[in-house]
């Protein structure tokens, strides 16, 4: 299983655990300057997640918020949590 790192920075620590080895689960860590995530099953899922994280990073940097967020679960749940983070940044 691979891990993608955004912004050419050091990867964030991702704890090991059985839930991170299933293809239907994605673990996301995001801060105002970087995010990293473990891969999910398909390229389409990775592209959707990548776009959501890019949008989150732009808002986080623009708001200069030191936000650390952790989301874990099915892709739909993770995208919903990313949306909630965006709402927090816009408030």
Description:
The protein is α+β, with helices and mostly antiparallel strands. It has one domain (3-90). The chain contains two helices and four strands. The protein has helices at residues 43-63, 75-90; strands at 3-5, 26-30, 35-38, 69-73. A four-stranded antiparallel β-sheet has the order 1-3-2-4, with helices on one face. A hairpin with a 4-residue loop joins strand 2 (26-30) and strand 3. The longest helix has 21 residues, at 43-63. Residues 1-27, 30-34 and 62-70 have low confidence and may be disordered. Keywords: Coiled coil. Residues 1-24 are annotated as: Disordered. Residues 39-66 form a coiled coil.
Topology:
Blueprint: E1 3-5, E2 26-30, E3 35-38, H1 43-63, E4 69-73, H2 75-90
Antiparallel strand pairs: 1-3, 2-3, 2-4
Helix pairs in contact: 1-2
Low-confidence stretches: 1-27, 30-34, 62-70
- Count of helices? 2
Sketch the major β-sheet. Answer: 4 strands, antiparallel
**How many structural domains?**
1
Cα gyration radius (Å)? 12 Å
- What sort of overall outline do the alpha carbons produce when their principal axes are compared? flat
How would you classify the helix and strand content by structural class? alpha+beta
Number of strands: 4
SSE order? EEEHEH
Assembly state: single chain
Helix content bin: 40-55%
Strand content: 15-25%
Q: Strand order within the widest sheet?
A: 1-3-2-4
Mean pLDDT over all positions = 54
Distance between the termini: 36 Å
Coiled coil: 39-66
Keywords: Coiled coil
Region (Disordered): 1-24
Q: What structural keywords apply?
A:
single chain; 91 residues; alpha+beta; disordered N terminus; four-stranded antiparallel β-sheet
